């Protein structure tokens, strides 16, 4: 099932996307379950917004793909590298991202994202599926110049707009450890990988995040990016397609 | 004025602390201003909780005191080091902190904390006072072993309980750049510094945080710790007193 968050007139609502239909839900599916109101809109008539603004945190993992670790000149690590992005960095599908004034080198990173459905701590990998609400597509935007300069990546990965998420949350993904990730910049393929190249499984990453922190419903875990990252420029149209979920589009401006 | 958040029976409320009186406020002073209900409790009869759980983020600054940078063997930096702690790390005055299973070396760091009152971005230092709701006391707990091991400090500084805040928010602090910070472990003085030893002013740090991110009402900025940090053990009672605000107490357990 595909759960979108969208605006028709004013306040955001949740809905189930079925082809071009969006069946409006009553309330917040993270806390009230899936209850349809009987109202349906056409997908073309609504404006999608970020499917979730975490009440707590976005947890990112880095260097989870061997080839990407190598392309940035890093060792393939024994442990996945974990970092935080604040909820003020989250934007939705189609939202413009203003490149931050402090950076001349913002890079795209196409990723599979996990959306947590339940409060949890110390979840073993084999139980991770129980705490996962669904999956979405993320662009883990990173200011490479700030990343080189700053010992901690708060600013490099946490600026406003640094975490496009969307277009919606897919609650059933047959095998999260075997989905294709393709990133296109202005229509040209730049990343073409699969989560089957990851060093750790998606469930392993959920387990590791939950060892570090209590996870809350709506928290998001970014699972890392395959090889092929590159810089974005003003005016670029970046599309990230994750197999079985959909395509997240972002446009960039100064 | 001292704004506390506390529990009498069930849901947390806000109140103004005046000596041993707590005058209950109607609603959330961050969004609804200071309106008293006419109900008053005695401070001894209420249980204080964290004066704010940020809806977005805790932004920490490190190496802002020359002597502390040196004691950890770091260069005195040209720029303050910025990091994030998630809101799941926040606990209140008197709350027990469970030392995380992944660390044998958790250190206290007594700090002055700024609580943001308004949504803002790119605030110049000379206007920072306009966006500050008030000040509280923080213990920027840090797992030194994880900090050494992990390239990013998400886990080292972000574990559950890693950010005790309290006992309340003081909205008027005569000179935030000249307040004493004393940390006592089991009654013994371990840190005895002043914000007048900081390399940057408090307003400078607010300005820098707001260059990196949009700040939301209730976001918290930790201004760094003076020299004298050390490890905490199970059973320790750590008290951090910031002049003009009050004393934040934390007890530790495994």
Automatic annotation (TrEMBL), chains A, B:
Keywords: Isomerase, Metal-binding. It comes from Glutamicibacter ardleyensis. Residues 1-51 form the Rv2993c-like N-terminal domain. Gene3D superfamilies: FAH, Fumarylacetoacetase-like, C-terminal domain. The keyword Isomerase applies. InterPro entries: Fumarylacetoacetase-like_C, Fumarylacetoacetase_C_sf, Rv2993c-like_N. It comes from the Bacteria. Pfam families: FAA_hydrolase (PF01557), Rv2993c-like_N (PF10370). Residues 57-251 form the Fumarylacetoacetase-like C-terminal domain. GO terms for molecular function: isomerase activity. Signal peptide: none annotated. The keyword Metal-binding applies. This is 2-hydroxyhepta-2,4-diene-1,7-dioate isomerase.
């Amino acid at each position: 099932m595909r759960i979108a968050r969208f605006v028709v007139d004013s306040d955001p609502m949740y809905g189930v996307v079925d082809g071009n239909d969006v069946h409006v839900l009553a309330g917040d599916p993270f806390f009230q379950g899936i209850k349809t109101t009987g109202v349906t809109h056409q997908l073309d008539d609504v404006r999608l917004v970020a499917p979730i603004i975490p009440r707590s945190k976005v947890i990112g993992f880095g260097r989870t793909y061997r080839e990407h670790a190598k392309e940035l000149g890093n060792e393939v690590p024994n442990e996945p590298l974990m970092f935080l992005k604040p909820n003020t960095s989250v934007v939705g599908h189609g939202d413009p991202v203003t490149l931050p004034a402090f950076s001349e080198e913002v890079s795209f990173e196409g990723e599979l994202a996990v959306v947590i459905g339940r409060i949890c701590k110390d979840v073993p990998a084999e139980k991770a599926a129980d705490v996962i609400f669904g999956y979405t597509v993320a662009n883990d935007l990173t200011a490479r110049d700030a990343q080189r300069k700053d010992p901690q990546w708060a600013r490099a990965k946490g600026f406003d707009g640094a975490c496009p998420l969307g277009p919606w949350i897919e609650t059933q993904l047959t095998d999260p450890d075997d989905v294709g990730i393709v990133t296109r910049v202005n229509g040209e393929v730049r990343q073409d990988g699969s989560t089957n190249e990851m060093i750790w499984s998606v469930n392993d990453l959920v387990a590791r995040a939950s060892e570090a922190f209590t996870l809350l419903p709506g928290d998001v875990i970014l699972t890392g990016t395959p090889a092929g990252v590159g810089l974005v420029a003003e005016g670029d149209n970046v599309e990230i397609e994750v197999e079985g979920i959909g395509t997240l589009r972002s446009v960039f401006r100064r």
